[in-house]
Specification:
Elements lengths: L2 H24 L2 H16 L9 H23 L24 H13 L1 H8 L3 H13 L3 H8 L3 H16 L9 H17 L2 H7 E10 L5 E5 L1 H10 L1 H4 L3 E5 L2 E8 L2 E11 L2 E8 L10 E3 L6
Parallel strand pairs: 1-6
Antiparallel strand pairs: 1-2, 3-4, 3-7, 4-5, 5-6
Length: about 300
């Protein structure tokens, strides 16, 4: 099998998934097919032997094409059109789908997404829509999404978080567990301020992990209750000035240094224990977070 035939076969293996990605991004079966077709054209212009992860490469290309289409549509304030565009001269079409695959697949995609969700997705910013679709529907990691939208992984994560809240509605029902999570955060801060190692270990899940990310998107992790407790004690000077907040709807604390916003620590709490801490220490990343400062006693 020559290289062109091999790439065509591999492309065909990925076609259904690429169509599903594009349809959820664009809300139009015709435009989705156009985006997938563009990925095939770009594959033909590339050195296929140099592509180590073809499914990932194709998803990235389709994502970027859809992002451009959404931005163009938004600038012209157009609705998605179902009328297909004629082929241009000299454009090689992608291999045709198998018998019965086209209409049936489009119907299945429409049923799986649902008109209501597509209507809501239309209200999202193009980058938010891409982050939500790729991560929540197709499990694409945020570091890959970040390369598509030209942002850091942390910023890509925030795009998806904002999109989720908009999809769920602006006024969600009150969370009955919010007060308990606040108690856990308060206990963590009190133990850190007092340098109480045992109290810190008690409020941490044995497999807790602390993830830290800088402006360059470089991340690091510390795992285990004892290791995290030792690190938290070093955080004590900043814990004394910490303010309780919500970061993308999750409990968080903001620490100040010399009166300026210094860092954000976002908590994931499960079964009354801190299971994960996400820390942003670079002030350059803070404006991209959806932060809400809470007064003492607020939930």
């Amino acid at each position: 099998m020559d290289e062109n035939a091999y790439l065509a076969a591999r492309f065909e293996e990925n076609r259904a998934r690429l169509n599903a990605v594009a349809y959820r991004m664009l809300g139009s079966a015709t435009e989705a097919e156009d985006a997938v077709q563009e990925a095939w054209i770009r594959l033909g212009r590339s050195d296929g032997s140099a592509i180590e992860n073809l499914p990932g490469w194709l998803t990235t290309v389709v994502g970027r094409v859809c992002l451009d289409m959404l931005r163009s549509r938004r600038s012209r304030r157009e609705e998605p059109l179902e009328a297909g565009a004629p082929d241009g001269p000299g454009v090689e079409r992608a291999p045709a789908p198998g018998p019965g695959g086209d209409p049936e697949q489009q119907a299945l995609m429409a049923d799986s997404v649902g008109l209501a969700l597509l209507v809501v997705l239309e209200t999202l910013d193009p980058a938010e829509r891409l982050a939500l679709v790729l991560h929540d529907m197709f499990a694409v990691p945020f570091d890959e999404i970040a390369r598509i939208v030209d942002r850091t992984p942390a910023a890509a994560r925030q795009l998806a978080s904002r999109a989720r809240r908009r999809v769920r509605g602006a006024d969600p029902a009150p969370d009955p567990g919010a007060a308990r999570r606040r108690e856990v955060v308060d206990a963590f801060l009190a133990a850190a301020r007092n340098g109480d190692f045992d109290a810190l270990v008690a409020v941490l899940d044995p497999d807790v992990v602390v993830r830290t990310e800088d402006a360059a998107g470089v991340s690091s992790a510390v795992r285990g209750a004892a290791n995290v407790a030792r690190q938290a004690i070093m955080f004590a000077p900043f814990a004394r000035s910490a303010r309780f907040a919500l970061a993308d709807g999750a409990p968080a604390v903001i620490s100040a240094l010399e009166g300026r916003r210094f860092s954000v620590m976002r908590f994931t709490i499960e079964d009354g224990k801190v299971s994960e801490l996400f820390v942003i220490r670079d002030p350059a990343l803070l404006p991209g977070l959806d932060l809400t400062l809470l007064d003492n006693g607020d939930d």
